[in-house]
Design goal:
Length: 159
């Protein structure tokens, strides 16, 4: 496969909008009160899903580019506590940080100085740049689907 085609394909996967909604679409037009609703015991709120995505994506990104990065403790530090409520300001901050890290992953994917198939120098055996970027895209796609489902359950999905 041509390198430019590979990079474009990876960027399209990160951004979504082909086989699933983009993060922008999944997170737009939400009312403040909806983000903290738990539709059923044991089901995460929209806020929790987003914050989990943000934390996980940041961890994947930092692990990939920063040899000194220490991942959060699994699983406790990857999810907000149940029944934790978030302010609208914190919600907007999480969305902003998520988008910032997503853009950094896109920049990594298009950086022609990096061989996407090469081993991350400080990474575990078999952990390539491409593996980590695809892991983030896959994880985001899954949880974006969860957010869309939550929005539908809460009658908060506007096409």
């Amino acid at each position: 496969m041509d390198e430019k085609v590979l990079r474009k394909t990876v960027v399209n996967l990160l951004k979504g909008g082909q086989a699933y909604v983009t993060s922008e679409k999944a997170l737009e037009d939400l009312d403040e009160e909806v983000i903290n609703i738990y539709p059923k015991d044991g089901i995460h709120s929209i806020w929790q899903e987003l914050e989990h995505m943000r934390i996980s994506q940041e961890d994947i990104l930092k692990y990939t580019v920063d040899p000194s990065w220490k991942s959060p403790k699994w699983p406790d530090s990857y999810w907000p506590h149940f029944n934790e409520k978030v302010s609208w300001e914190r919600w907007k901050s999480s969305v902003s940080k998520f988008n910032l890290n997503l853009n950094e992953l896109v920049d990594l994917a298009i950086n022609s100085k990096i061989d996407l198939t090469s081993q991350i120098p400080h990474g575990e055996p078999g952990h390539t740049y491409l593996r980590e970027i695809l892991l983030a895209a896959d994880h985001n796609a899954y949880h974006l689907g969860q957010i869309v489902l939550l929005r539908k359950l809460l009658n908060a999905w506007r096409k």
